[in-house]
Amino acid sequence: MKQTNISVFVPHNGCPHRCTFCDQRSISGVVKAPTADEVRQTLAEQLPHLREREMTAEIAFFGGSFTGIDRAYMISLLEAASEFVKSAPDVYNGIRCSTRPDFINAGILEILERYGMTAVELGAQSMNADVLRLNERGHTPGDVERAAEMIKQRGFSLGLQMMTGLYGDKPEYCIETAKRFIELKADTVRIYPTVILEGTKLGELYKSGEYRTFTADETIDLCAQLLTMFDEAGIPVIRMGLHASREVEEKMLGGVYHPALRELAESRIFLNEMLREMRKSGGSRFIVRTDKANISKVVGQKRENKLKLEELGYSFRIEEEKGTRLKIYALQNS
Ligand code: SF4
């Protein structure tokens, strides 16, 4: 059975915070908050399609701060979702939400548990106190730790979300953030390189020249490192980069936004591994064996990896080998 999410976007209209990267103020009122009946309608409409495709789905309340919205409204949405988890458990196998770390407390978790919430994701963004302060998040790394521990203790799946390249950020802070996420035993992680949008504080800082985010190449390098760290810790990275949207494309001033960002990061991991092995061998011509599924990542987008290695004096040809991730053989006369 293939697993998917049925996402319900719940905007945090009237959010009291002013995070530097967020354009919630400009979309407030434009993105309509769904009613419980609209949620029911969506779930009922999706049910036969999911059954037909033999898929299971979690009902996902996204948008930022699910547990910070009006309490009665939040409960009405949870009621709608839990009805479907109870009546169609073969398809709807859970409910997840994303929220701020400082919108988690024992009372809120009790409500979520009552309605069958399975996973809670926290928008941590960074575990560096200065980065959180500079980006006016209004919470500290300690809030993330406290909320994460409470979520784990209650038995929910813990999701942690981080951003890279915020105002005041450095790649080493992102690596530290990933280390803390691993120590906090996150069950899933999402990584979002910063996209600078018109109408945000970051947008102003960017236009004034006060702020520059990481370049695309730095971001891909960093994402490759983060993916490797989480992979070694056995934590799935369930999303990398913002979903494609017209709004982002229209309002983007800078930052890193690429529909195939994860593929680029995975390809960089292959490049780094090949380079390491090739340097170690002392040769210059190689055979690279890999499964068919990896070939495009080994070669790189627009043959980037191949060209980079050639620039450094290494050439290779690929041989398909089913089930193999990467094996490198130096050719004798190289
Ligand atoms: S990102 Fe910040 S400003 Fe935007 S909705 Fe969430 S808490 Fe509010």
Task: Give a short overview.
The protein is of the alpha/beta class and about 325 residues long. The protein has helices at about 25, 35-50, 70-85, 105-115, 130-135, 140-155, 170-185, 200-210, 215-230, 245-250, 260-280, 295-300, 305-310; strands at about 1-10, 55-60, 90-100, 115-125, 155-165, 190-195, 195, 235-240, 250-255, 285-290, 315-320, 325-330.
Structure explained in plain terms:
- The structure is a single chain.
- With 334 residues, the chain is an alpha/beta fold.
- 43% of the residues lie in helices and 22% in strands.
- It contains 13 helices and twelve strands.
- A seven-stranded parallel beta sheet has the order 1-2-3-4-5-6-8. A three-stranded mixed beta sheet has the order 11-10-12, with helices on one face.
- β2 (55-62), α3 (71-87) and β3 (92-99) form a beta-alpha-beta unit.
- The model has no long low-confidence stretch (mean pLDDT 94).
- Residues 12, 15, 17-19, 22, 24, 64-65, 100 line the site of iron/sulfur cluster.
